[in-house]
Amino acid sequence: MIAERVGAVRERISRAAQRAGRRPEEVTLVAVSKTFPAAAIREAWAAGLREFGENKVQEGERKAAELSDLRAHGLRLHLIGHLQSNKAKKAAAAFDVVHSIDSVELAQKLAKAAAEAGRTLPVLVQVDLAHEPTKHGAGEDALFPLLEALRDLPALRCDGLMVLPPFDLDAEAVRPWFRRLRELRDAAVARGLLQGAELSMGMSHDFEVAIEEGATLVRVGTALFGERQRAA
Length: 232
Hints:
The protein has helices spanning 2-19, 38-46, 57-66, 68-71, 88-94, 104-116, 140-150, 171-190, 207-212, 222-225, and strands at 28-32, 51-54, 76-79, 97-101, 121-127, 156-163, 198-200, 217-220.
């Protein structure tokens, strides 16, 4: 079942990329495996997926241990949920990419933990464009100062930006948020503030529009694994 869904999502990615004049290979599919057991990740791995997203540090930590054999062969875990600074040390050990840097304080704590672990950790800055009270991120006015601060933290490699736009079943309604993130990414690249050009944006219901607007990382869960299971 998961293999069939992977094929369908990859086909949707390919068509969206072609509409935008892009190569499908420019888009990385991050399978959002939060609340699903390690067995589901193994099934997705067998279907060819290598990148998996988790919302919570504790759950990601547990799965990192359960999937240590696959991690040794290329499985990568992305933290796509909010990271509290007091969990920075655990996050630096469990995850391969962190999408949700939103403050200088958090970046400094994560950098310290990564340095102590002897690694350079790829990160993305989460940008708060819609100012929804239930979501996190750096506001536009704080974005460039935060990116400047990240340049002084060699244990972190800031590869791009991430956004969680307001939920709307009409994907066209969220296109402006994706477009704005791309504009901010381009401005940051022009100022030499990013070490990559990643755009983490788009989920199961809107990732095609995100790809049309330049997404390089799409975070897809329901379309791959089905409806969410209750968290353990």
